Amino acid sequence: MNMWKKTMTATVACLMTFSLAACGSSDEGKTAGVSGDIKVYTRDSSSGTREAFEKGVDFEGSLTKNAIEVSSNDDMAAKVGADKNGIGYTSLSTDFEKNGVSALQYEGVTASSESVLDGSYKLQRPFMYVTRAAGDYGNDDKEQLVQAFLDFMQNSTEGMAIVKKNGGEVDESKAKPWDELSKKYEAVLGKDNSAITITTCGSTSVEKTVKASLEAFSPMAGNFKFTMNQSGSGDAVPRVLGKEKDGPNKGDIGFASRAFKEDGSEDISKAMESGQYCIDAVVAVVNKENTGVTSLTQAQLKSIFTGETLKWEDIK
Q1: 32 to each of 27, 28, 62, 144, 292, how far by Cα in Å?
Q2: Architecture of the structural domain at 39-125+281-314
Q3: Are 124 and 316 in contact (CB under 8 A)?
Q4: pLDDT surpassing 60 at residue 26
Q5: What backbone phi and psi angles, to 5 degrees, belong to 311?
Q6: Where are the chain's structural domains?
Q7: Which of 40, 47, 120, 272 shows a CA-CA span of 20 to 30 A to 79?
């Protein structure tokens, strides 16, 4: 009888231990992700990505004073990827996996080519370009190469495919073969243009689409060289049309990851060309270890970026 009691006691103890262990596993599953202070990362005030994000989430001018400022789109991805408590925002063209970050849904919608083009993903913005004034390139061949490049990137079947492959969203239904479009530039395209350098400036978010386009176009246009001096959307107009257009940071084509301002501070009326070449999405990102957060609403993002919500476990 005593032996039976001892056996039953041991059995009950084992069952209780197993039950407690199982409960512990369940609790861990419910608290996946990270806890503690939220580390907010932001871009500098000249960034088109920052402007688009703050306007889209409706907290322009109310960013928390504790936000950590980063220098570029790539820097944002790298910094959040190195901080398990971090949150920031990047272009959809960002290599999320390489940087160790996860893209969050916005209002339950995943950012994708389809959701951007059909408008269901709301945090989106245009990629714009603006050039120097006609006759202000130093020589006619460079001016014609700039015209040809922009035509290739935004209107040709081949150019639009490159932009799309590198994260820009485009409507390819109106594209034409480059063989057809290039005829009007035959004189300059057939020359040896290796002594000419085209310089771009402005937004850092456009780097991937613009660099890929320039790399593909140069061999088709006399092997001109190019230099990319991307520092932020706010530098696009000043460096091609404004006070810096003849200085050390001058550019031939300026890019912005937002619409150009119409308040007089970004006058593009004298540009040889200006326009939009694709659409991009702005995506909220967190560290890949933060698996407990996959989607945030406008209200939740606003609460985080204005400093109202300070800890991950307090997100409601």
Answers
A1: 9, 6, 30, 56, 5
A2: 3-Layer(aba) Sandwich (3.40)
A3: no
A4: no
A5: -125, 145
A6: 39-125+281-314, 126-280
A7: 120
Number of residues assigned to the chain: 316
Count of beta carbons in the 10 Å neighbourhood of residue 230: 22
- If you ran DSSP here, which 8-state letter would residue 171 be given? -
DSSP string, 75-95: HHHHHHHT-TTEEEEEETTS-
What would the pLDDT profile of 165-197 be if each residue is shown by its tens digit? 999 999 999 899 999 999 999 999 999 999 999
pLDDT at 44 over 50: yes
Nearest to 261 by CA among 51, 37, 38, 5: 51
Residue-wise burial string across 179-209, b where 16 or more C-beta atoms lie within 10 A, e elsewhere: eebbeebeebbebebeebebbbbbbbbbbbb
Residue 254: phi, psi to the nearest 5? -105, 140
pTM: 0.80
Among residues 316, 305, 313, 307, the alpha carbon closest in space to that of 43 is found at: 305
Give the count of beta carbons closer than 10 Å to the beta carbon of residue 38.
Answer: 23
Cα separation, 198 vs 216, in Å, equals 14
Alpha-helical regions (H) of the chain? 2-30, 48-57, 73-81, 96-99, 113-117, 140-155, 157-165, 178-181, 186-189, 207-217, 236-240, 298-305
| Alpha carbon of residue 114 to chain centroid | 17
Token reading at 210: 């613009």
